[in-house]
Amino acid sequence: MKICKTVKEVKKEIKKWKAEGDTIGLVPTMGWLHEGHLSLIKNAKKGSDKVVVSIFVNPMQFGPGEDYDSYPRDLKRDAKLCDKKGVDLIFAPEVDEMYPDGFCSYVDMNGLTGELCGKSRPIHFRGVQTVVNKLFNIVEPNNAYFGEKDAQQLAVIKRMVKDLNMNVKITGCPIIREDDGLAKSSRNSYLTPEERALAPIIHQALDLGKDMLKKGERNPQKVIDAISEKILSVGVTKIDYVSIVDALSLKPVDKIESDILCACAVYMGNSARLIDNFSFEV
Ligand code: PAF
């Protein structure tokens, strides 16, 4: 497995593979890999001849006061995991390599980013779209894999690819959970033992909401209130949002009449903001 730090090195490798007729699968990550990422790699291995994992903590998608500095980083550890899973190349650039002096171009969108995480993280998706666009241009993947835990990110990337006629197939992969239901996330490493013990409440509360929908509840506010109440009942003090939005437009709905996404972001203590979601088909 190769580890490349520069765009030039990656492009050289990609050119060689393309000349040999290989298809390329890209798994974009910010590192501190967990089983969620490993399942993306597994899917990429099934769907493409060569698998590239990018590892880059992208400063452009973090707002002021967010966890850019404290985000866990350990390339050696991640490289070992990738090697074991049969990854062909890791692209792990420094910030200067991705955003050299004078960098001033961005990719952004008007829809899909106004609700959910976009409300409290207004510059986040511009940063995600810009870096993913750059990664697509550098790696030229046939396929790219993203986790469904970041449901809004997945919707934004799919829309960007469609709107901008990008030549890459996007595959969303299911959320991977701990045995107690907590969605796997690099940010779970911020949790104190006490917070970790409380964190499964997020999934339990979403399950409660899903049960209400299955039993026929169609008033979104009733479901949102029940989920919020359950999360707060264990002593969690800050919910960023619990929302029910239309699955395609990601706009809030007054009545649940078509497919929806129910998503939440919850602060566990001071440092960890955890997200989770489920989709419901009507
Ligand atoms: O999901 C992530 O880890 C990041 O948002 C991504 C897609 C790698 C872009 O930096």
What does this structure look like?
- The chain is built from 10 helices and 9 strands.
- Helix 6 (124-139) packs across helix 7 and helix 9 runs antiparallel to helix 10 (220-232).
- Strands 1-4-3-2-5-6 form a 6-stranded parallel sheet, sandwiched between helices.
- The mean pLDDT is 97.
- With 282 residues, the protein is of the alpha/beta class.
- It has 2 domains: 2-173, Rossmann fold (3-Layer(aba) Sandwich); 186-280, 2-Layer Sandwich (Pantoate--beta-alanine Ligase, Chain: A,domain 2), CATH 3.30.1300.
- The protein is globular.
- The structure holds pantoate.
- Residues 28-30, 58, 61, 128, 131-132, 150, 153 line the site of pantoate (PAF).
Secondary structure: elements and pairs:
Layout (H helix, E strand, L loop, with lengths): L1 E3 L2 H13 L4 E6 L5 H13 L2 E6 L19 H10 L4 E3 L3 H4 L18 H4 L3 H16 L3 E5 L3 H13 L5 E5 L19 H6 L2 H14 L5 H13 L5 E9 L13 E9 L3 E9 L2
Parallel strand pairs: 1-4, 2-3, 2-5, 3-4, 5-6
Antiparallel strand pairs: 7-8, 8-9
Bound molecules: pantoate.
Could you tell me which ligands this complex binds, including any ions or cofactors? pantoate
Strand tally: 9
Low-confidence stretches: none
Per DSSP, the total helix count is 10
Q: Kindly provide the radius of gyration, computed on alpha-carbon positions and rounded to a whole number of angstroms.
A: 19 Å
CATH architecture of the largest domain: 3-Layer(aba) Sandwich
Could you give me the name of the CATH homologous superfamily of the largest domain?
HUPs
Shape: globular
